[in-house]
Amino acid sequence: AQSVAQPEDQVNVAEGNPLTVKCTYSVSGNPYLFWYVQYPNRGLQFLLKYITGDNLVKGSYGFEAEFNKSQTSFHLKKPSALVSDSALYFCAVMGGSYIPTFGRGTSLIVHP
Amino acid sequence: DTGVSQNPRHKITKRGQNVTFRCDPISEHNRLYWYRQTLGQGPEFLTYFQNEAQLEKSRLLSDRFSAERPKGSFSTLEIQRTEQGDSAMYLCASSLATGGNTEAFFGQGTRLTVV
Question: What is the structure's pLDDT at B100?
Fold first, then answer.
């Protein structure tokens, strides 16, 4: 079975500071990894993905994520946080079943 | 807008009633997923179609839940004899299963409240 762990329910960061939202995964075979963002009462919005190739992938709104195979991690990062980045962030993993499994989510709060 | 469309956006129903939700995926997307999300949780997988074939259904899914995707286009999710525990946001997503296009795109969801 595949699974995702997001160890932090909430991450607080000051505007302008770098942010990291953590994600670890478990899956058989090579993983497809995704990050999504969710604003209140909205569906999930795709941010970025890792399939193969470079371990550092870049996505929308200045976000990037680093794939680390040995640590089975896919942490989301941004060099300089904005107040408008405050939202729920979900990590997802997909294996050969082609069914994404999501983590519980991390609430990112960026303080002015 | 050619994104994933879900209707209705909100549904309030009495316990014991049947409800049906509709999802129109992005045109030409051959994979379609239904998820359920409750407050403070991530999306929970319900079922998955590739074209018109239902390939996977969550073992946790009650037999009161059924989904269809006739002709491999839109999909419907029906819940029979609703219970208060069915109250949740129901999310539909679609993806195009070719090459590196593996990401799923989500609709706005249907919020179900069972009273």
Answer: 65
